[in-house]
Amino acid sequence: MATKYAVSMTPLMQTYDFGVSKTNSKGVLNTGYSDGNTRLWREALCSGKLVTGIGDNSIAMTNLSVYLARKYYAEIFNLADVPEPNSAVMSVWDQNPIGVSWYS
């Protein structure tokens, strides 16, 4: 049985698997949390084109941040490929005293 939680030395740090999508019953929803250095994610969110997010795109990810997240998920879970998401969101709280990022 696979775990629903992984800790890694990648910039994803802590990754949670919240199961099968209720929307299409096919996709797996992955959410991660990084505490500490969020510089990679802040820079990735400032580069590239926005991908489909939710609402007003205030927490939408860019194609670069999605690429990096997929790359690290594949590394953590030893997968050949992680499919493109239907939507992707991220929030980076890198101002003191918080210093974390969250993405889904």
Write the layout of secondary structure elements.
Elements: E1 5-7, E2 14-20, E3 28-35, H1 39-45, H2 63-76, E4 90-93, E5 100-103
Task: Give a summary of the structure in a few sentences.
The protein is of the alpha+beta class and 104 residues long.
Uncertain segments are none
Content of β-strand: 25-35%
Largest sheet: 5 strands, antiparallel
Number of strands: 5
SS element count, helices: 2
Principal-axes shape call: globular
Q: What is the typical, i.e. mean, pLDDT?
A: 77
The SS-based structural class is alpha+beta
Overall structural domain count:
1
Helix/strand order: EEEHHEE
Rg over alpha carbons: 13 Å
**Percent range of helical residues:** 10-25%
Give the N-to-C terminal Cα separation: 23 Å
Which strands sit side by side, in order, in the main sheet?
1-2-3-5-4
List keywords for this structure.
single chain, 104 residues, alpha+beta, five-stranded antiparallel β-sheet, 2 helices, 20% helix
Structure, explained:
Helix content is 20%, strand content 25%. It has one domain (5-22, 29-103). The model has no long low-confidence stretch (mean pLDDT 77). The radius of gyration is 13 Å and the shape is globular. It has two helices and five strands. It has helices at 39-45, 63-76; strands at residues 5-7, 14-20, 28-35, 90-93, 100-103. The chain is α+β, with helices and mostly antiparallel strands and 104 residues long. The chain starts with a strand and ends with a strand.
